[in-house]
Amino acid sequence: MKKHHILFIILSAFIFSSCEKVVELKVDSGEPILIIDSQLSTEKEPWVVTLSLTQPYFDQSTIDYIGSATVTIADNNGRTDTLNHTTDGVYVSDDSLACESGMTYTLSVVYLNNTYTATEQCFYQEPIDFIRSYFLPEANGFIPKGYYVFQKSLEYEPEGDFYMWKIYQNDTNLLDQIGYQIENDENREGGYWNIAIDPDDPLKDIDRGVFPRPFPYNFEKGDSVRVEQYRISREYYNFIGEFSNQQNRSGTPFDPPPSNPKTNIIGGAYGFFSVVNVSSAEVVVSD
Question: How many Å apart are CA 63 and CA 54, to the nearest integer?
Fold first, then answer.
């Protein structure tokens, strides 16, 4: 899985003046704060944890990575793996590992005599049944004509599930184009995602003129599209939502106050330790 560095907002100031003048700001940089970035999944791969420090607001030209910490990940069956530092604050497990549904995992980072911990559960999810592409010959409301992709997958009971999707076009992650795709199971309990009328024959819905909810992107014929569906925790769902809101700030006085997304890390660090259950499927866009 691809990793994204998290930009943490430490300070934002708006200055209004009725006359033109030079304002010199003296901003205390404060002590650097540890940033922890890690995601474990049900896909078998090395576990990775990245450690770095926050930067002064007016000097973010370089990133200070941490290579002198002790990093471990333990499960609730008593297994503990110690990760080894490689380069640029990246700590990697010796073996390729996969999380198991129902298990709980705890990250521990010891740095400068301080201990930081975070715990996440791996939640069950039903696999994606299939994804399909179709061509919309005419615009439908705000949705232009073109090629779209949708999926069918059963939403697991009981209530209180949270999901995230990553969509790849020819192996390129579309995060920058469509933003974070997250959703909870409110009003979908035990039903199907992205299906309008007939979950057993969703293409028939198109013939009836019913437009199923597609992924919000217009593909090209011949594109290879991979959809990854992540079952995530409520805390990670909220973290992504808050982070996305901060990313989408327009820089006007009407924006909400800048703030750091709420972390699940205990001990005073920023970032998030997530454990996700992944299901994926691929399709080649065609008529």
Answer: 8
